[in-house]
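Throughout our pipeline, every protein is held as a single compact record rather than as scattered files. The remainder of this section carries one protein's record, kept here as part of the documentation.

===
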Amino acid sequence: MPIPSTARLFSALLLSTASAVAQAAPEFVPGDVADLSCKVARLTSDRDTFVLEVDVRNRGRITAEPLVFEVTARPNGRRKDETALTIARARMPWAFRAGRPVPAGRTTRYHLYGSIWELPKRLEVSVTRASFFTGSLTPEPDDDQPPVQVGGITQDTLAGAAGTVPVSRIALHNTLPRPVDVLLRARFSRPRDAVGLITASLGAGEERTVPVESFVGSIEWMKWGQASGAKVEEVELVDWCQQFPQDEAKARQALLDAYVNWVRWEAPTAVRGAFAIRATRDGVRRQGKGMFTLSKSGKVEIDWDGPQPEGVAIGSTLRDAFRNLQRPSVAELTAQNRFARMADDLVAVAGPGWRQLSTDAQKRIQGDAERGILVDLGDDGGMQMFRITDGRLCASGWSLSGNFEEWTLEDHPRGYLVTSHRPNDGAQVFSWTYDDVDGVPVTSGYREVWKDATGAVIHEIELELPKLELDSADPSAGEPAPPRGPGLAALRAVWDATWAYPAEPVTLKARFDIETPATDGVWVGQKHVTGSVTIGGFRGYRVRGERWATVDIEIDDELPATSHGSLRDAVRDRLGLWAGRDVAGRGDFDDAFAGATIGAERRGAFPIDGGPYRAVEVKKGLIAGFDLGGGTERSFHYDLVGGHPVPTRIVTGDEELLATWRVVDGYLVPVEFEFRRVFGRDWGPEVIELSDVRIER
């Protein structure tokens, strides 16, 4: 299942549609999961999976909706060999949820599915997360007449990366005015005779078919891997859980109450001073020292004392060293982001969070905020989740993966400082030490340690910052240092020679026709979507800098009216996919590489320190690719259209984006797109064709 974009995920979380708030919701209140006791009613297994029926009794005084269970299995009855499984009966958010609750003093049965190596002799179950509410649900839960109707089963085929595979499609209809997650127990005859589980998420009032591509024996709200082909013979609805609207202001305040005591530099601050860096990779140690200036906007200037060590990215390391202190104010954080409660102790932040942004990105955020729309930063955007304990931020992670970085905190007279980040996979450790300069905390040291699967250190960076000065005036923030380095002139010539969109804004109008396998939930089950789009202030598909002033999308009336909002978001999201990667929208050279040091060309590539890319590859006088860091590379392939070489194929890792261009009213623009493997190897392809394209000046 592809990871949803920030815009469409937050649309689901906040549920601002009129239909979602038309019916009165129960009042969600704090509760204690200790009031919920579990008893195993029935346990059956098939090969390496089990089906567990659990009775949950509510010993408290508040109605509860169990959401996450922990199942502890002891295959041989011994504690030392036990394994713990976390099973969620609904996807995130685990807040403002209700569907089949446990009233006070009552018992409700739930079905859990999981994977095990062998049938355990002893098994214990507990509830680890639940929502609690007062008042009643409308309509009241009824197992005999559930609010989600299950229709017939049809057999079909699906084209994927592994070829064409058989699939079953289950017709579902959500009669509720709110989104709902459902669990279906299915009897499979392919790929093997077994009982498995189907999970599905439906929008308010949504009616669609859900494709079943492979056998799943456990509750998995994020499904990965190749489709193996499946045939479902029978299906039964066993569970459902509604998602109620939430108050964004309360989620925002919960995070800000913890954020305000996290010590930061209150005034716009630049820092300068001496540094010494040591980097060890694969047993080879490199070191260097010099002077640096880091502006409040994150621009780095370096004056090395001697030659720069090969492969040492001092710019990004310095930014990481000060990222816990050089953060936005509460007002800036509020303007740049949106907020949603994911659980009692978890708040999600959509947007840049407290990352350092370019001036162009800051302007774009401000413009979006003034127009009252969700921040859309393309590749610069995202959503993170933060855990709050005792009024402090203590962990962060990507909300859909569950992979958290645990924070270590240190008391300070003004609040608390963060001294380490430790991802729960144990593969990396990031740590900071601090001193005070005139009563203001500053980073005195920074360290990164990267380990392999055996725990051996494969990469280590140590940064010492012995003498630092702060400058709240930060004269370098307004005028970033120009790019420099021995490769400056040569890279500039290639950068400027590669064709780019014209700078003047125009208006683009077109009809669109989209073909999709509809396996991505953003299409709400629609394989064929048509409509029209008008983009005001269109300056091409810009990777950097200001994008478009307005984007108006209309969906044709023959599609369900209840799906139009989701489909408009999906079309906008797909246009943004190309915009985030198109080298023709790269922007001005001096803006893109402000403050960067460009090394001399080596083997057709220019190494970059302190810039947006680790390296820029060139070929035949054109930009051929970018090293994006972290082992990710992007390549560009060109065709000649209208007398100009334009990018018709862009490859980033497994992802492949294709485009067909033509000249429209004297303007060179892509008119057909094909997207492959964007959110995984089995994703897509999706094809967008633009017709009746017009350019108005």
Summary: The two ends are 41 Å apart (CA to CA). The first helix runs from residue 6 to 14.
